[in-house]
Amino acid sequence: MPSRWRTCLVVIARDEAATITRLLDSVRPFVDELLVMDTGSSDDTVRLAEAAGARVARFEWIDDFSAARNAALDAAGADWHLVLDADEWLIGEGSGAALAALRTTAPHFVGTIALEDHFDGGTARSRLSRVLPGRIRYAGRIHEQPVHELPVRPLDIQVGHDGYLPERLQVKQGRNEQLLRAALEQDPANPYLWYQLGKDCSVYDRFADAEDAFANAADRLTSMPLLPPWWYDLVARRLFGLKSLKRHAQGMVFAESQLQQCAESPDFFFALGDLLLDWAADQPDQAPILLPMIEDAWTRCLEIGERPDQPGAVAGRGSHLARHNLVLLASILQKGQPR
Known about the structure:
Layout: E1 7-13, H1 20-27, E2 33-38, H2 45-51, E3 55-58, H3 65-76, E4 80-83, E5 88-91, H4 95-100, E6 110-119, E7 122-133, E8 137-139, E9 145-147, E10 152-164, H5 166-171, H6 175-186, H7 191-203, H8 207-221, H9 231-244, H10 248-257, H11 266-282, H12 287-304, E11 313-314, H13 320-335
Parallel strand pairs: 1-2, 1-4, 2-3, 6-10
Antiparallel strand pairs: 4-7, 5-10, 6-7, 7-11, 8-9
Helix pairs in contact: 6-7, 7-8, 7-9, 8-9, 9-10, 9-11, 10-11, 11-12, 12-13
């Protein structure tokens, strides 16, 4: 067995001139190679990638993320692959050392990284399998997943992502939805694809379409004995969407069905309190009943605390954001009416 294992950053990119240098500069000191698979850029992505020290290969885009990623992995051919996107970058004091340590670590497991999503108004955290032994490949047209039966190990590698900021969302609006709907035509019973479609619609404030997709995902999960890790995120997003659609009663019925399943999710109780407050504002005659329920929901957030281990958890909902809302609620209660 070799005493040193070759590591490579693997990126697929198209028209990512605004961010590609940031990514490559953040990772370069800690890997043996940078591989950028360009899928048809018309801007300066290729030139900037080469200037940052990356080897650039080219792949004709065929509306299939797995095909592009697998071609990039084939071209990289390393023992370890760190798979990132151009709108991501390495953060955290210990991340570089953890990444460099792969050079002396046998590739017998899949490693997860801690992803910090920056969006308009906050950050959300999740863990994703992005550190792959050389032989692992992807499946799925979109929101592709590595296929393997290896152990999964969390690594002290933190990655920032700002692809959900408004200016970036505008650039790729419609792209993911088109691919998701194409994938659903082939696999209409797949709840994960319905969840991702709902998520995509919700980030563009298309809440009616998001609700249809989330409801489809939920319907297809009812017969499963174990809910997937992303269920917490679906529930919170669905409650926010139902609030935005003014379907408060429907949201409350759904929330009541999830009280046991989401008992340890601050995001669930935060979204529930938000929905109830909007309901109280729309129907002041119901405020005496709803306001104590809102207080209970946000107090429960603080009792649970932060849960960055739960996919999609928004930072602060188990701490300062809930406290802030409780202060505002106290002022409402003092005035005797909802705002």
